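In this section we walk through a basic example: taking a raw amino acid sequence and producing a predicted 3D structure, encoded as discrete structure tokens. The instruction is simple. Fold the sequence below.
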Amino acid sequence: MQVEKIRASDGLELSYVRQGSGPFVTLIHGIGADQASWDAIASQLEMRFTVIRADLRGHGASDRMTCCSLDDLVADLGRLLDAVGAQKTHLVGFSLGGLIAQKYAIENSVRLDRLVLISSVAERTDEERARVLTRADQIDREGIAAVVAAADERWFTPAFKAANPQRIAERLEQLVQNDHRSYAAAYRVFAEADRGMAFERITVPTLVMTGENDPGSSPRMSRLLHEKIAGSQLRILPELRHSVLLEAPDLIAGLLLDFFQPT
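The resulting token sequence is shown next.
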């Protein structure tokens, strides 16, 4: 696995890794995580694909930031694909990564083979958006630690928490260790950027999935995406909440492989 760097258009240095061989698959992680959140899934994809995964600006080994927009994150993805020579790629986005993938697919469908939106938000109601903005304000005032308890509740099923306390503690500690200003900036994008997406312009084969009990990236949102993206497939994952990459990597990897290599 190679660790490499590129420069964003505004000069920020972004870190990414490449592994495997074959057609390209590009994986975009969620807020407060990094490219390592795909480790268990990438290890299964790399046997058939060249897997590309970057640390979003402000995350992981990429440069820190104080503000950004969804357009910045989409432009970073375009520069990454140029840098690795991916004329076309399968694109997979989780949570905030799903918003980035949505916008990229709307604007650059010619570069995509297939699109997967995992635990992705869409057209929040006023009440749903108010809850996210309340957390954003709390992060600004009190820091990331203030939202850890709420994340623990939203992300994991009770059974997984009972069986894997150390893994959950490590994930929540990773969340707290994020750069506060970078996290706050990315969280504002996550809170606001689902407004007005032109889903009908997504023309590539698309798979939409989320956990049955995900309160933030809810089944309602995934069904809406499925209805608005012509020809898309929908999978509601029984019992799971938000953090499906950590809790069910084998399930996610299997669904991706089936979707990318249909019989």
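Looking at the output, two observations stand out. The chain is about 45% helix and 20% strand. The chain has a mean pLDDT of 94. In the next section we compare this with other chains.
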